[in-house]
Amino acid sequence: QKEVEQDPGPLSVPEGAIVSLNCTYSNSAFQYFMWYRQYSRKGPELLMYTYSSGNKEDGRFTAQVDKSSKYISLFIRDSQPSDSATYLCALYNQGGKLIFGQGTELSVKP
Amino acid sequence: KAGVTQTPRYLIKTRGQQVTLSCSPISGHRSVSWYQQTPGQGLQFLFEYFSETQRNKGNFPGRFSGRQFSNSRSEMNVSTLELGDSALYLCASSLAGGSSGNTIYFGEGSWLTVV
After folding, report:
1. What tens digit of pLDDT does each residue of A65-90 get?
2. 3-state DSSP call for residue B51?
3. Does A97 contact B at CB distance below 8 Å?
């Protein structure tokens, strides 16, 4: 079983839609949770970083962590074509390694 | 503040050759980690260096090696290249590395094609 599971998509939505991206993880010891956005042929850029269970909001983006279910989510409100990218969840394991999900490819159509 | 800089951005090598990739971290960052990204395997951790010492290592063969210099700049080397080594190699830097949950910042990557 992979430490982090993420549906690779692709996911296609119309402009203005609410997007929900999700990851599940297997080890309850994970403590730090991140979401990265990666545009084609670019390096990943950090979007959100959370530590505890609950919600964290930043503009149109909301990161949600449910440690009891080992489930993390990223919500994008009022999605824009410029949001089209691959979104990767990332978690630190006990050994200090950052483990990434497979990434979900998102396309927002005008 | 300059970001993480990787060189070269693109390169083509022949099977059996070796390659060295370079990374300059964000000023003040002492931890540098390397990742390999391929369509099939996604982002996979190679190794992490902190203060010139390898602190963490992923599950890659010994052909993959790295080092870090006193100015925190890092290089990774892949010897005896195989076709399967074709990938985007990403360098990331952070203040103190993963053990403290520090956020890491990625460079644009080096695209390696092995023919």
Report:
1. 999 999 999 999 999 999 999 999 99
2. coil
3. yes
Lowest average pLDDT, out of A43-47, A54-58, A92-96, B2-6, goes to: A92-96
pLDDT above 90 for A1: no
Two tokens, residue B28:
């003040």
B1: pLDDT confidence band, cut at 50, 70 and 90?
A: low
Contact criterion met (CB below 8 Å) for B92 and B106: yes
Query: What span, in angstroms and rounded, lies between the C-alpha atoms of A72 and A67?
Result: 8
Task: Count how many Cα atoms sit within 13 Å of the Cα of residue A102 in the half-sphere of its side chain.
Answer: 15
Region B99-110: mean pLDDT is: 82
**Dihedral pair phi/psi, residue A93, rounded to 5°:** -90, 180
Q: Tell which of B104, B108, B111, B112 to mutate to test the A interface (max A CBs under 10 Å).
A: B104
**What is the Cα–Cα distance from A100 to A90, expressed in whole angstroms?**
4
Q: In chain A, which residue's Cα lies nearest the Cα of B58? A: A97
* Tokens representing residue A76 in the block: 């994008």
